[in-house]
Structure formats: C-alpha cells, structure tokens
C-alpha cells in the first residue's frame, strides 16, 4: 500500500466526516436544550460507523468476486483515459454548480424534521439507532466518497482482511471530527457553543449546494489518479 493510496483514503474519509449524518446531526444533538447527553451521541456515532462498515464489507466482498475478471479492463489505457475524462467532467460540474447561489435563507423542510428528531433529548436508544440507520440510508445514494474509497481499496494489491481493517480505520476517521467536537463541548462548552451554532446555520443554509465541492474533490482524485497511471505528470515534467 503506497502513500498515494493512504493520502486519497484520508482525504475521502475527511470529506465523509462532514456529511449530513456524520457531522450535522451530531451538531444538532450537541445543541439540544438541557444537559448534553454524550452517551446518546456516542451511540449514534457508533451506529453510523458500524453501518457504514457493514455496507463497505458487503461491497468489498462483491468487488473481490469480480475484480480478477475486471482487472485487465481497469488497467487498460482506454479505461484510464475514460477515468481522466470523467474526473475532469466532475470538476467542471462542481465549478458550474458551485457558482449557483442559494435561493433563500429558509431551511428545507426535511432538514427541520431531522433536526427536531436529533434534538429531542427524550428519545430512546432504539429511536436513536433508528435515526442513525435512517441517516445512513438516506445518504446511501450519494455516498460518493465512500464508494470511491471502496473502489480504491478493491483495486489495491491487498488481502481482503487488510482491506476490511483499513475500511474500519476509514470509518473511525469519518466520525473523528464529531468526537473531537464532543470532547470540546464537554470541556469548554462556553467557547464551543457559538461555533456550533455558526456551523449549524451555515450547513443548513448551504445544504442544497454542499454536493458541489464534494464532487469537485472526487473529480480531482479521479483525474489525478488517471493522469498518474497514464504518466502524464512525467511527460509534462520532461516537456518543461
């Protein structure tokens, strides 16, 4: 496993750590009225991480079954060129989408409903686990960073247990920012509270457009990986 793979996985995990389910809902739970119930938040984050890991393991098993047949095609020059074009296309999409301004300051009704569920301190552990599973399920169709990470792991020359272990580490990194915020909230609440409020407002206001920068980073990773395999960087350095 080379440094490029590790770096790409870390970047993707950090992107995943800022998603609706791994960041915004935990912030709502930390902003809930009354005494902070850290155990509820830990149960929620553990459920999210485990559910992501289960999804990833299932996909890795599927990739392991078909990878040997697909590897020649994935390593072919036409596929690498197509990957480069695809990455550049994602970058272009992100640039165009990112320039659109929010149409208003009102939060989508769905976000309001989810926030009410997250900030209800009397919810049972069963309801909390249900909230975590629902959040991950809702994001399943758009978990582009996670799918990209699974694709990178599937293509790497690693054993299946090693891939699962790395994927488990990925899931830990994915919930790490929320855990850091929780520790700060418990230690220096008066300093962290204003920041949590500001982040909550920003993420809720820009919820419709946050996909753009995620897609842009993915496009860069796809394009740079294809350029490396096509040895475009070496050709460029020689030309210069």
From TrEMBL:
Domain of life: Bacteria
Keywords: Membrane, Transmembrane, Transmembrane helix
Pfam families xrefs: SfLAP (PF11139)
Regions that span the bilayer: 6-29, 41-67, 79-96, 127-158, 164-186, 207-224
Protein name in the entry: Sap-like sulfolipid-1-addressing protein
Organism of derivation: Salinispora arenicola (strain CNS-205)
Lineage: Bacteria, Bacillati, Actinomycetota, Actinomycetes, Micromonosporales
């Amino acid at each position: 496993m080379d440094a490029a793979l590790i770096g790409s996985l870390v970047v993707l995990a950090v992107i995943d750590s800022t998603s609706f389910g791994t960041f915004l809902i935990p912030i709502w739970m930390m902003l809930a009225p009354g005494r902070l119930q850290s155990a509820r938040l830990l149960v929620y984050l553990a459920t999210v991480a485990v559910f992501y890991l289960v999804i990833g393991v299932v996909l890795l098993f599927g990739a392991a079954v078909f990878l040997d047949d697909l590897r020649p095609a994935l390593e072919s020059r036409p596929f690498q060129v197509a990957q480069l074009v695809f990455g550049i296309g994602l970058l272009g999409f992100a640039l165009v989408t990112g320039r659109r301004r929010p149409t208003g300051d009102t939060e989508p009704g769905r976000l309001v409903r989810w926030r009410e569920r997250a900030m209800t301190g009397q919810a049972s552990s069963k309801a909390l686990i249900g909230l975590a599973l629902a959040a991950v399920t809702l994001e399943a169709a758009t978990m582009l960073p996670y799918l990209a990470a699974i694709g990178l792991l599937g293509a790497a020359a690693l054993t299946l247990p090693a891939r699962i272990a790395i994927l488990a580490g990925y899931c830990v990194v994915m919930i790490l920012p929320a855990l850091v915020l929780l520790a700060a909230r418990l230690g220096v609440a008066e300093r962290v509270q204003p920041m949590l409020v500001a982040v909550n407002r920003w993420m809720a206001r820009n919820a419709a457009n946050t996909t753009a920068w995620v897609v842009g980073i993915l496009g860069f990773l796809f394009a740079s990986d294809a350029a490396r395999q096509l040895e475009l960087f070496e050709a460029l350095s020689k030309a210069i």
